Amino acid sequence: MFNFLRAIFQNRALLGSLTKNDFKQRYLGSFLGIMWAFIQPTVTIVIFWFVFQVGFKSQPVGDTPFILWLISGMIPWFFFAESLSNGTNSILANSFLVKKVVFRVSLLPIVSLMTALLIHSFFIFFMLAMFLYYGYSVEIYWLQIIYYMLASSVLLLGLSWLTSAIIVFFKDMGQIVSMLIQFGFWLTPIFWSIEMVPEEYHWIIELNPVVYLVDGYRDSMIYHHWFWNDLGETVYFWTVTSGIFMVGGLTFKKLRPHFSDVL
User: Is there a contact between 90 and 160 (Cβ–Cβ < 8 Å)?
Assistant: First the structure.
């Protein structure tokens, strides 16, 4: 871990350059360019808001307007889905670095993570602006978003190491990840409340570590609840995340020497 963190520091300029290029190349050739990175998630939020609040007449969740409750759950999910999807393909997309350049390949998933973080940061400010627009005042609990961003990043890095290493040898992994992201969206209480499910089944839903992150954003923005107050859930999340991080790192290290032969 120490060597890995040192490698990040030593390659910080290269990581910044790769992140900038990755951000540009995704939307190269399109008329609106990088604006699509922000337009697509915004349109998705608007569609869900229109369907559930205008169409189905969804009522406020407690004392919170439905749109605020919705975006505080969808924004962390967008970050998770975007980062995992692109992180899975990070080795394939940068195969020239793997084959021809002396480079610490384990840093490549970080490039995808940093790109997703840039977009996520924009939507964090968008979410804060929405809360202020609806008359909410700035709360110290909002600073917890930084903690949940860090927690998300550690989980995503472990998952990206695992999936990006496997997809080099098993191309179907990309499709599997896409399907899991789709299933995960509907199985995670993003636009529906966990209270809709009988209490005896809550533990099954909470096995999903992303539930901790989605609930964390809402605890920070809406319910004003510190993460250490739910010690059991916090310990569970970090236990699972640490396990994924180690398995992902070891898998990547084991398969790394064979990347150039397969690519």
Answer: yes
Q: Looking at residue 30, what is its pLDDT?
A: 57
Signed CA dihedral, 120, 124, 130, 133: sign only: negative
Amino acid letter at 17? S
Can you give the pLDDT at residue 179? 93
Mapped onto helix, strand or coil, the DSSP state of residue 132 is helix
119 with 133: CB under 8 angstroms? no
Number of domains in the chain: 1
Residue 39 counted as domain residue:
no
28 occurs within a structural domain: no
The residue range of the domain holding 115 is 59-262
User: Which amino acid belongs to residue 186?
Assistant: W
| pLDDT of amino acid 5 | 67
Q: At 150, list the tokens.
A: 């860090």
Go through the chain and tell me how many residues it has. 263
- Here the tokens at position 24 are 């540009």
pLDDT-flagged residues of the chain (< 50):
none
pTM, rounded to two decimals: 0.87
Q: Please report the pLDDT score of residue 36 as a whole number.
A: 64
Residue 41: per-residue pLDDT = 74
Q: Which amino acid does the sequence have at 67?
A: I
